[in-house]
TrEMBL record:
Annotated GO CC locations: cytosol
One Gene Ontology MF term: carbamate kinase activity
Species name: Candidatus Pullilachnospira stercoravium
Protein family membership: Belongs to the carbamate kinase family.
Protein name in the entry: Carbamate kinase
Source taxonomy: Bacteria, Bacillati, Bacillota, Clostridia, Lachnospirales
Length: 310
């Protein structure tokens, strides 16, 4: 059986939104991961964390609000917490499913930091909404701290930057575990964004798009395949129009043509396609697959999904 090194990006559908939903969703996702392993995939998993990190950010800051002796939790700490508790459910569920299939394969989660550029233009244009709804007075207090807020239907919410990943700090540890045959969960939520300051790493008030982090991780690990699992079986152009077209196998050049035409939504499908193109074009023989979580095995076997090749 041919064995392929695969980095898988899991969207929020694979994880759920609440604690009970996450418990159920990770069990379903684990069955799919176990099937992929049986089909020959050596796997590293990156996952989203938007609902989870938002819940943690809200809970920690509400706690700090009513307990003056405690400090508010910065975004980097909230990201670290989300990696821990998502990884806990995911690795245990995958371990259980592999054992049911008669496969012994260690599963582990690596708390992962990802460096970002302090001069990234994203810091001047924050786009990711995070945390609870605030009053106008609370929003003003946030702005006094140097944080950005946006007015919403129900009040105000904080927004943070989404800079591009530059490097994965724990890449050597991830690579060692991966090459030793482990299923590795890493760069959860896109990774904990950090800034390099001489010998220290300082948490950044930001979130990293998990699709870009997955692509970066796949390139650093020299993976054979990047698989981005989302809510649709295939990527569409002309989305929600009379000339909508579902894409099967396309070249990097064709994908770039579609991107230049503005076919993909900036904060949803575009990062998936862009990360795929960057991964595939770097080296011959690679491919990227974008498909739904329930079609992951068929996508891996080349039976469905949008496949991007050089």
């Amino acid at each position: 059986m041919e064995r392929r090194k695969v980095v898988i990006a899991l969207g929020h559908r694979a994880l759920g939104n609440t604690l009970p939903e996450q418990k159920a969703a990770t069990k379903s996702t684990a069955k799919i991961i176990a099937r992929l392993v049986k089909e020959g995939a050596e796997i590293v998993i990156c996952h989203s964390n938007a609902p989870q990190v938002g819940m943690i950010h809200t809970a920690m800051n509400e706690f700090g609000k009513y307990h003056p002796d405690y400090t508010f939790a910065p975004m980097s700490v909230c990201s670290a917490m989300s990696q821990g508790y998502i990884g806990y459910d995911l690795q245990n569920a995958i371990r259980s499913e592999l054992m049911k299939e008669g496969v012994y394969k260690p599963v582990c989660t690596v708390l992962t930091q990802v460096t970002v550029d302090p001069y990234d233009d994203a810091f001047a244009e924050p786009v990711k909404v995070i945390g609870r709804t605030m009053t106008e007075q609370e929003a003003e207090e946030e702005e006094k701290k140097g944080n950005s807020v946006i007015r919403t239907e129900n009040g105000y919410r904080r927004i943070v930057a989404a800079p591009r990943p530059q490097d994965v700090v724990e890449i050597d540890s991830i690579r060692t575990l991966f090459e030793a045959g482990h299923v590795v969960i890493a760069c959860g939520g896109g990774g904990i964004p950090v800034l390099e300051q001489k010998t220290e790493l300082k948490g950044a008030s930001a979130v990293i798009e998990k699709d870009y982090a997955s692509g970066k991780l796949a390139r650093l690990l020299d993976a054979d395949e990047l698989m981005i699992l989302t809510s649709v079986e295939k990527v569409a152009v002309g989305y929600h129009t009379d000339h909508e077209e579902l894409l099967g196998e396309i070249s990097v050049d064709k994908a770039r043509e579609y991107m230049a035409r503005g076919e993909f939504e900036p904060n949803t499908m575009l990062p998936k396609v862009e990360a795929s193109v960057e991964f595939v074009e770097e080296k011959e023989g690679r491919r990227a697959v974008i498909t739904s979580i329930d079609k992951a095995v068929e996508g891996y076997l080349g039976k469905t999904g949008t496949v991007i090749v050089k």
